[in-house]
């Protein structure tokens, strides 16, 4: 009997035994997973089948492969598997190469956290890379009922079963791993943004649902454990709740108070006024493209080529007839309901084109799918069959071709990663936008970072979306993917400047960002190149090298936050809900636009006003910074003084920006920027003004 180690990625610990040989190169493997917390044997069997589905490709195949189930005192099963399928169940999660601790020194003494054991997660799953792991579920059960009732594979431990936490954490601090790809796509060396950083995992969400109580517990533990950065690839659905009743806002305020930077996703809601996690003490991250594109080409019978998007691991060698999904309905089935087995016999061996909805084309005999959905063109969908996603313009080309041909045909190429794409970056079309509906004087999002088709580690037990294949690295899009890029940059800045406050680190990242793409034009929105503003990208796209040496920063502390909240009408009861302390506002708090934020926003400009800012110098030796203004439309802007002279590190200087409007902006914000430069450093603050009257 052969012993094979069964490893696990952030979140199958045990052993797999091979016994005997049968036809088709399958062997009898025993998969042992230790203690379990399922309520009954049926739940264990269902979970085992779901796990097997990830490598067999179908639930029916999993049932056929299973031989025995171990459900009473421990969890496991035996199954007929190929060696490749057995490997897919081994080599994974915290044991992923992306979480190797090779070359790392001892766990930092300041970290006081723990490695909490649980289902398929032992002390050996932590190392000098994953230095801590905790999990929370009491709030979830109180809100939603037993975890077992959701009929999904899960581990009652910090182990990841859906891939999201694995992907985001490896993006932040994954170790250097050579020859990584998804089915050969995007092949190269994978590394996190801060590969020498350590990870502490706090699993507070289950099945894409998060309990406020569990989130607060996780943040509370993380602060007490001694973390430097909290990365939160999660958030409330729009509209954003007020800060005083929002768990993320409350928890992150206490993190800020203790010197911990909190970076969080802005959301994936496409539209204006949908940005989430907009509290001014949170670093709010939008998503943008990279100069690497994932392309799947559709070759038409007339030699025309249409560019699509997907993750297609195989080349379609032959041309097949094209049939519109609405024309493929079986007799008696309305065209709008053509789906699954309602596809007619004539659709067999045809490529099916459909609009905005996926259905099981394979069961109807289709050999491929072309999906029309302009809102998903930044998402590399993985289909069971060869498939491609196209937008409306491409759909028009395809429909014109189909209308011009008696027997239109096409084939779908294997997906390729294309490098040196221009223009890039562009804003992801799904990325949530401002303005900030809670504090409109604070421009949100704060920053943008790569969040489209990001390749990072994945949980092999999580099938890759619709394709049903088990993988160890995956290409995923979302502000969940952009947030960890900024978290990694915050860690780098923190390591370079250990004494800096969260606000200073935030300022360094924001004021050094760029608003230009690699063609030296302004960043626009993908895929149509529409105009953008700070409500799309905040201060711009991250510039890691510049952020380490920003020149000077805009700093603020919790007392400044309280003053800001008071200026917006916060009550003592609300302040107590946020801070946990009895607090009262000063009689004459500063204006909300005087909050010392790295961007400058005035949401109700009536006549001329003066806006105040204070900066702290962190350059080398004496320096003189001069002001340059990009004037918002319809506004005269003055800066006093227009030169800042610094002598040494720590010097503070104040200045006043005067705004004199010439005409109202009719309810729309107008934008500009204030830039300070000493000839080497560029410290830029976007300006957003809503001019109500002159």
Automatic annotation (TrEMBL):
UniProt GO BP: proteolysis
Gene3D superfamilies assigned to the protein according to its UniProt record, in alphabetical order: 2.60.40.2310, 3.50.30.30, Peptidase S8 propeptide/proteinase inhibitor I9, Peptidase S8/S53 domain
InterPro entries: Peptidase_S8/S53_dom, Peptidase_S8/S53_dom_sf, Peptidase_S8_Ser-AS, Peptidase_S8_subtilisin-rel, Peptidases_S8_3, S8pro/Inhibitor_I9, S8pro/Inhibitor_I9_sf, SBT
Domain Inhibitor I9: 29-90
Domain spans labelled Subtilisin-like protease fibronectin type-III: 594-687
Pfam family, one: Inhibitor_I9
This protein's record includes keyword Hydrolase: yes
Residue ranges of domain Peptidase S8/S53 in the record: 158-539
Position of the signal peptide: 1-18
Presence of keyword Hydrolase: yes
Entry's Gene Ontology molecular function annotations: serine-type endopeptidase activity
Record protein name field: Subtilisin-like protease SBT3.4
Organism of provenance: Sesamum radiatum
């Amino acid at each position: 009997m052969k012993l094979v180690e069964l490893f696990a990625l952030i979140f199958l610990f045990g052993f797999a035994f091979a016994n005997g040989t049968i036809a088709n190169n399958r062997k009898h493997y025993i998969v042992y997973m230790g203690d379990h917390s399922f309520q009954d044997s049926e739940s264990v069997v269902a979970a085992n089948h779901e796990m097997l589905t990830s490598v067999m490709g179908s639930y029916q195949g999993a049932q056929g492969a299973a031989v025995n189930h171990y459900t009473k005192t421990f969890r496991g099963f035996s199954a007929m598997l190929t060696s490749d399928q057995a490997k897919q169940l081994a080599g994974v999660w915290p044991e992923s190469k992306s979480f190797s601790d090779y070359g790392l020194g001892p766990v930092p003494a300041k970290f006081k956290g723990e490695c909490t054991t649980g289902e398929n997660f032992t002390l050996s799953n932590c190392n000098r890379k994953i230095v801590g792991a905790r999990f929370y579920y009491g709030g979830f059960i109180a809100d939603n009922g037993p975890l077992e009732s959701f009929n999904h594979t899960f581990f009652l431990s910090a182990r990841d079963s859906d891939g999201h936490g694995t992907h985001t954490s490896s993006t932040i601090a994954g170790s250097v791993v050579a020859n990584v790809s998804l089915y050969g796509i995007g092949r190269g060396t994978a590394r996190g943004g801060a590969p020498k950083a350590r990870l502490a995992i706090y699993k507070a969400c289950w099945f894409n649902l998060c309990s406020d109580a569990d989130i607060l517990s996780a943040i509370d533990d993380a602060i007490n454990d001694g973390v430097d950065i909290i990365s939160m690839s999660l958030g409330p659905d729009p509209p954003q709740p007020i800060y005083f009743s929002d768990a993320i806002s409350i928890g992150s305020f206490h993190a800020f108070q203790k010197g911990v930077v909190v970076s969080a996703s802005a959301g994936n809601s496409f539209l204006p006024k949908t940005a989430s996690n907009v509290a001014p003490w949170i670093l709010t991250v939008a998503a943008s493209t990279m100069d690497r594109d994932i392309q799947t080409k559709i070759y038409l019978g007339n030699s025309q080529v249409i560019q699509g998007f997907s993750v297609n691991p195989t080349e379609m060698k032959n041309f097949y007839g094209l049939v519109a999904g609405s024309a493929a309905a079986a007799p008696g089935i309305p065209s709008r309901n053509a789906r699954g087995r309602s596809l007619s016999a004539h659709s067999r061996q045809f490529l099916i084109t459909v609009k905005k909805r996926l259905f099981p084309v394979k069961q109807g005999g289709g050999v491929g799918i072309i999906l029309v959905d302009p809102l998903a063109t930044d998402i590399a969908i993985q289909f069971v069959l060869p498939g491609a996603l196209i937008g409306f313009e491409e759909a028009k080309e395809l429909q014109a071709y189909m209308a011009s041909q008696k027997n239109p045909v096409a084939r779908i190429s294997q997906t390729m990663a294309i490098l040196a794409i221009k223009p890039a970056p562009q804003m992801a079309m799904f990325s949530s936008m401002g303005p900030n509906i809670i504090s409109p004087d604070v421009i949100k999002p704060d920053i943008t970072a790569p969040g489209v088709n990001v390749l990072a580690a994945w949980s092999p037990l999580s099938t890759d979306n619709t394709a049903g294949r088990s993988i160890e690295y995956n290409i995923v899009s979302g502000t969940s993917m952009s947030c960890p890029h900024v978290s990694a940059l915050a860690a780098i800045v923190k390591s370079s400047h250990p004494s800096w406050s969260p606000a200073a680190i935030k300022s360094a990242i924001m004021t050094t960002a760029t608003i230009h793409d690699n063609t030296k034009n302004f960043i626009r929105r993908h895929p149509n190149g529409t105009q953008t503003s700070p409500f799309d990208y905040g201060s711009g796209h991250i510039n890691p090298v510049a952020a380490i040496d920003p020149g000077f920063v805009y700093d603020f502390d919790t007392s400044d936050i309280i003053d800001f909240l008071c200026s917006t009408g916060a009550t003592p009861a609300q302040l107590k809900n946020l801070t946990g302390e009895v607090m009262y506002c000063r009689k004459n708090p500063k204006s909300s636009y005087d909050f010392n934020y790295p961007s400058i926003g005035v949401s109700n400009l009536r006549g001329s006003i003066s806006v105040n800012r204070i900066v702290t110098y962190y350059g080398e030796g004496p320096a003189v910074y001069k002001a340059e203004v990009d004037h918002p439309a319809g506004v005269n802007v003055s800066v006093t003084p227009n030169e800042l002279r610094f002598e040494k590190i720590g010097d503070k200087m104040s200045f006043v920006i005067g705004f004199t409007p010439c005409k109202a902006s009719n309810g729309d914000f107008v934008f500009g920027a204030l830039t300070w430069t000493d000839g080497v450093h560029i410290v830029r603050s976007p300006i957003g003004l809503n001019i109500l009257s002159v």
